[in-house]
Automatic annotation (TrEMBL):
One of its GO terms (molecular function) is DNA binding. SMART domains: Resolvase. This is Resolvase domain-containing protein. Signal peptide: none annotated. Residues 1-20 are annotated as: Disordered. Residues 1-16 have a biased composition (Basic and acidic residues). Pfam families: Recombinase, Resolvase, Zn_ribbon_recom. The lineage of its organism: Bacteria, Pseudomonadati, Pseudomonadota, Alphaproteobacteria, Hyphomicrobiales. InterPro entries: DNA_bind_recomb_sf (IPR038109), DNA_bind_recombinase_dom (IPR011109), Resolv_N (IPR006119), Resolvase-like_N_sf (IPR036162), SSR_resolvase (IPR050639), Zn_ribbon_recom_dom (IPR025827).
Length: 681
């Protein structure tokens, strides 16, 4: 079938210059083929999606896939593998933040496929700009987008379909919003029913009080008006086994967010519609709530629905005003490397708490809902360092990186990438010049000169196309994973040098994105009573949407802060001491040996004592963390203090400097001057 497909491509290429052949070919076939794709083996993919609507079911997915398969058969293209059939269920086409959609584009960028087919343009996206972005992305990678109904659309028709899809969505939103406002003006409930109420069957939005839930609402308002914190109320509700409106555990946001229970006027008999509006972030797809001016809201007095008395309501609103209004999620501050990847064994996310620079990690279910028994917190810098070292030592560096263990498409060689980019850019330039020659006034040349120019440009286009056909991607085993492993090793080294790591500029954000692309999930178990903790890391595959199996796991002792909290620095200091990198040479010791002849320095060998002082001066390693070869930290500290206060250390530095010893070249001779104070014991 592939041979037939490539043969048809060659026939179509001839048809571009032969009108008779063009008339013989079907319009669908001619629109579907592409000379760029003919230069290499074609790998296809299918994308299917249905929206969260009652009329969209799994049968819609089956219909879309069958239509795309039939289309591939009609143009002689190979069928895609099961791994390249991308399906997004219950997903809106208004934003690109869809798992299968993103996986498909990642596979395209990795060179996984070249030709994608969907049933209709609005299955890919309902956003005009996004449709054009994806179209350009496929063209950039030498591929194309096809549709089972329309075939391959030209940019102009693509714009029309994109605009119609976006306009259809906008009109649907406007009609729905108008209907909701009309229902709200009539006093009917619109949207989700508030906790404490239920709708009368068959009444189309008429509410009545639910007695059991209404008593819970009174309890919440009463406790909050009496001074209880939101967190203590939430913990009490969860402890008593009272489910929230969704049947899950309560949280602080359920009570005190902008649309939270404590801010809803329905509990005093005022049904409000349109108090907030939502907008969707075009990049992340997340929705954000915004307050609506009071004059644009619809408020209906329904005293029969009041479940909280006016005095309790007023007291609760006064407390909300004193704490700065309703609970608002803080705007995204400095991005942190573990956000969105780190979890507690209970399944809840762990979040950063505390002041900037002294962040700690805590289970959100414990701090916000009280449903997790793991109430312990741990310094974020400790966990960040442990995770990075764990990935470096056992997972994602050197020859043991997941990229080298998972069968992936190897990366293209750099010369090929550069040359192909140069040719494609030149092709665009030459084609634009050729188009401009169709308007003689543009160049101001005679007909003969224009004909000569066109012939030269067409000859150059044929030459570029021929070179593009012979320029093939060469994959080798050594290409696989090696570049990814080296790049990620550099990322780990950079982040380890700046713990706790904070993104200060776009380059730092790129480092965090690289880290998150390599890690799916990090789980920290802080339940041990001996203050130890266990870290489990699930690495992500670095190609397509294939996931790696296996988890990296390690048990860590009680966390240690300061110098000892960095195992790399501690190991480097121990290695430097054992190799005597800062120790006196025999000639140096002969110069200063006479200074130690008449005194007992806490029974420590004088030469080793001098070596310890030199080691501490050069490395800044705290005395309490001094390597064992220098002796007990307490004894060493006392002996070093006597050596400095007696003036012997200053004499040692002076004599070695006169002898031009390299061990004191550039040393800070005043480093221990603060030890001369009697206040230091």
């Amino acid at each position: 079938m592939t041979d037939n497909f490539e043969h048809n491509h060659r026939e179509n290429e001839r048809a571009a210059t032969d009108p008779q052949i063009e008339q013989l070919l079907g319009s669908q076939w001619f629109a579907a083929t592409d000379r760029k794709i003919a230069s290499r083996a074609t790998v296809t993919a299918i994308y299917a999606r249905y929206s969260p609507r009652p009329d969209e079911t799994e049968e819609s997915i089956e219909r879309q896939i069958e239509a795309c398969r039939a289309y591939f058969d009609s143009i002689g293209a190979p069928q895609p593998t099961e791994a390249r059939i991308y399906i997004d269920r219950m997903s809106s086409g208004t934003h690109p933040n869809r798992p299968a959609y993103k996986a498909m584009l990642q596979d395209l960028e990795a060179g996984g496929h070249t030709l994608m087919c969907a049933e209709l343009p609005d299955r890919v996206t309902r956003d005009f700009a996004e449709l054009h972005r994806v179209h350009k992305l496929y063209e950039h990678h030498g591929g194309g987008i096809h549709f089972a109904v329309q075939g391959r659309l030209q940019p102009a028709m693509l714009s029309v379909h994109g605009f119609l899809s976006m306009e259809q969505r906008r009109q649907l939103v406007l009609r729905t919003s108008a209907g909701r406002r009309m229902a709200a003006a009539e006093g009917r409930s619109v949207g989700k029913v508030a906790y404490g109420y239920r709708t009368v069957p068959g009444s189309r939005g008429i509410l009545v009080v639910e007695p059991t839930e209404a008593e819970v609402v009174r309890r919440i308002f009463r406790e909050y008006a009496q001074g209880a914190s939101v967190r203590s109320i939430v913990i009490g509700l969860n402890h008593d086994g009272i489910p929230s409106a969704k049947g899950r555990a309560w949280s602080d946001a359920v009570l005190a967010s902008r649309c939270g229970l404590l801010a809803r006027t329905i509990y005093v008999g005022k049904v409000t519609f349109g108090a907030t509006r939502c907008t969707r972030d075009p990049v992340t797809g997340r929705t954000t709530e915004h307050a609506v001016p009071r004059q644009d809201q619809i408020v209906n007095d329904r005293p029969e629905l009041a479940v909280v008395d006016a005095a309790t309501w007023a007291a609760a609103q006064q407390r909300l005003a004193q704490r700065g209004g309703v609970f608002k999620r803080s705007a995204a501050s400095t991005p942190r490397m573990l956000v969105g990847r780190i979890f507690c064994p209970c399944g809840s996310r762990m979040h950063y708490v505390g002041l900037r620079g002294r962040y700690r990690l805590a289970c959100s279910a414990s701090t916000r809902a009280g449903t997790c028994a793991r109430k312990r917190t741990i310094a974020a810098a400790v966990i960040e360092g442990d995770v990075l070292r764990l990935l470096r030592d056992e997972g994602l560096s050197g020859t043991s990186s997941p990229a080298s263990r998972v069968p992936t498409r190897g990366r293209v060689r750099e010369p090929y990438t550069k040359r192909r980019a140069q040719l494609e850019r030149r092709m665009v330039e030459v084609e634009a010049q050729l188009d401009a020659t169709m308007e003689p006034e543009t160049y101001g040349l005679s007909a003969e000169s224009l004909a000569s120019l066109r012939e030269r440009l067409e000859s150059e286009i044929r030459g570029i196309a021929s070179e593009l056909e012979t320029l093939t991607v060469q994959y080798t085993e050594s290409d696989r994973g090696s570049r990814a492993a080296v790049d990620f090793s550099a990322v780990i080294a950079t982040m380890l040098g700046r713990l706790p790591f904070e993104a200060r500029d776009p380059n730092d954000r790129e480092l965090i994105d690289t880290f998150r692309s390599a890690v799916d999930r990090i789980e920290i178990d802080l339940s041990a009573k001996d203050r130890s903790y266990r870290i489990r890391v699930s690495p992500a595959a670095w190609s397509g949407h294939t996931k790696t199996a296996g988890t990296i796991e390690r048990l860590f002792d009680r966390p240690r802060l300061g110098f000892l909290g960095d195992p790399d620095r501690a190991a480097a200091a121990l290695d430097a001491a054992n190799r005597e990198l800062f120790a006196l040479a025999d000639d140096d010791w002969e110069v200063v040996e006479h200074l130690f002849a008449r005194r007992n320095w806490r029974r420590l060998e004088p030469r080793r004592l001098v070596d310890a002082l030199l080691f501490h001066t050069w490395t800044k390693v705290p005395i309490i963390c001094a390597p064992p070869r220098f002796g007990s930290a307490v004894t060493l500290n006392a002996a070093m203090t006597e050596l400095v206060r007696s003036g012997t250390w200053a004499n040692v530095i002076s004599l070695l400097a006169e002898a031009e010893s390299p061990v004191v070249a550039g040393i800070d001779a005043t480093y221990f001057d603060h030890w001369k104070s009697e206040a230091r014991k």
